[in-house]
Specification:
The complex is a heterodimer of chains A (10) and B (212).
Chain A (H helix, E strand, L loop, with lengths): L10
Chain B lengths: L2 H24 L7 H14 L10 H24 L14 H13 L6 H15 L2 H10 L1 E2 L1 H28 L4 H29 L2 E2 L2
The chains are: A little secondary structure (10), B mainly alpha (212).
């Protein structure tokens, strides 16, 4: 799983 | 950003505003689960810590601040300002039965064993069950004011729209957030029973929702 995914979701 | 996520965020904002205004204008939180609102404030607090560490966009920052402020303001109205109208005896769901498993799972199943990541995972798992005290309270009292059902409708719709957003993002950019998707499905499933009652009862103009 990609941990560095950009958390651009609220 | 896509239309599903934008609509979802708007539904979420509408839900939170509906509830806040209902309590503020009626000066009463009768029928409202304070426990669910505390859990939602906890969800936002543990999820939006990155407000201080990373800037994504003005929209992202503004929405996070608005959600945090309204969540805490609602908890304030329930437990402080209008506490005499709070039905604590009906709001009897044991939230520790939610917090302990959610906290345990966030340590077991996460993307990275790092503080911010664990807290984010905790907030995702917690959000999927945070509405349970409110739904439990409605089954206990056997009824809900129509404005409360509109609040729940938009709150349930928001995560359903997020599911559409994840389908869209998967097909357009290959984005797949397993933890968020699985939790979002569970969260939306909890609303199915309510959605059925909402469409068959409230929208038929019967005003108050009385459970069979």
């Amino acid at each position: 799983a990609d941990s560095e995914k950009d958390k651009d979701e609220l | 950003m896509n239309i599903f996520r934008l609509l979802g965020d708007m539904c979420h904002l509408v839900a939170i505003i509906i509830l806040f205004l209902k309590i503020w204008r009626s000066k009463s939180c009768a029928g409202i689960s304070g426990k669910s609102q505390v859990l939602f404030a906890l969800v936002f607090t543990t999820r939006y810590l990155d407000l201080f560490t990373s800037f994504i966009s003005v929209y992202n920052t503004v929405m996070k601040v608005v959600f945090l402020v309204l969540a805490y303001a609602t908890v304030y109205l329930i437990y402080l300002r209008f506490r005499s109208t709070y039905n604590s005896e009906s709001d009897s769901f044991r939230v520790e039965f939610l917090l302990v498993p959610v906290a345990g799972l966030s340590f077991l199943e996460n993307y990275a064993f790092a503080p911010l990541e664990i807290l984010w995972t905790f907030s995702i798992y917690l959000e999927s069950v945070a509405i349970l005290p409110q739904l439990f309270m409605i089954t206990k009292t056997g009824e809900a004011e129509s404005i409360t059902t509109h609040y729940l409708f938009f709150l349930g719709l928001y995560r359903a729209l997020y599911l559409a957003n994840w389908v869209w993002r998967y097909h357009t950019e290959g984005f797949f957030d397993q933890i968020a998707v699985v939790s979002g499905v569970v969260q939306t499933i909890f609303y199915c029973d309510f959605f059925y009652l909402y469409f068959t009862k409230v929208l038929r103009g019967s005003g108050k929702m009385t459970l069979p």
